């Protein structure tokens, strides 16, 4: 189905999605969501580009701290609002969760005209609106990460038919349904704001990359059916933490540096410190990207729901692997929205070497 869609050049994201929907009518609502993502990514790309101009209203900090104790930049707040609005008014979302929101939001009850949107809240969307935003001041790449799950439709609450307590209990249960394992993702995407603006997505049948043509104002399919090299020679992790990592990972990385790993390749380091940029390079050139467990942060740094799981889905759909070292990232169900997860993802053979090292050590 996807091969047929891609059998022509010069395909815009809009056309790609409408052909996907023509061939798979059950994905119609997903087409609408990607329309919103298309627009939001272009708008965020413009905001990021203009953010350092003295006249920009997005410079500096908001003066708020998010639930994870991080200072929110004005850009974090503005991009969160932008994405929230774009997705919410598709009318196709029941629940939304974001790095910049303390708790998941029930969107339907907050819409101005519930009648228009009733029965269409098919999806749950999780996102990090601007990952790596601390890099923006230095012109370093940043990105948006998005995951889409199916919404539990039994969650449509009839507020006329329950007491206040019953309604809030049902609502809490619905919001808890946001917390699904990556295995349940129906789509994932990231937008990378860099020398070009890229949008890379998977609908569960391969990974497809689009590049923004600024003259047309459209994302154009530039990387059909992306395939990550199976073996590589790039390490992309914060190596200042090396001596706090688990021993099997330390040993494997030391072997790679000496050219004594399974591939025999001598590895180089490439680390931007901005997940979307590092994962994009890993998809194209191969290698290992990771934020693993260490003695200070046993669960690493990255968040499972809206960073780890969507990126793992995209990488796996391009033929790569994503693990904590001990478990496939896609199999973990989060207990809470902002839960962290150790992550090591990238070229199949290199990630497998890490998994084997953990297994041999256990
Ligand atoms: P953020 O979600 O607060 O922006 O932080 C996430 C970023 C990732 O993009 C990147 O992989 C990681 O933090 C880098 O962390 P470190 O500076 O510790 O290497
Ligand atoms: Mg982030």
UniProtKB/TrEMBL annotation:
Pfam families: FBPase (PF00316), FBPase_C (PF18913). It comes from the Eukaryota. Gene3D superfamilies: 3.40.190.80, Fructose-1,6-Bisphosphatase, subunit A, domain 1. Keywords: Carbohydrate metabolism, Hydrolase, Magnesium, Metal-binding, Signal. Residues 12-224 form the Fructose-1-6-bisphosphatase class I N-terminal domain. GO terms for cellular component: cytosol. It catalyses: beta-D-fructose 1,6-bisphosphate + H2O = beta-D-fructose 6-phosphate + phosphate. It is an enzyme of class 3 (hydrolase). Its cofactor is Mg(2+). SUPFAM superfamilies: Carbohydrate phosphatase. GO terms for biological process: fructose 1,6-bisphosphate metabolic process; fructose 6-phosphate metabolic process; fructose metabolic process; gluconeogenesis; sucrose biosynthetic process. InterPro entries: FBPase_C_dom, FBPase_class-1, FBPase_N, FBPtase, Fructose_bisphosphatase_AS. Belongs to the FBPase class 1 family. Homotetramer. This is fructose-bisphosphatase. It comes from Cylindrotheca closterium.
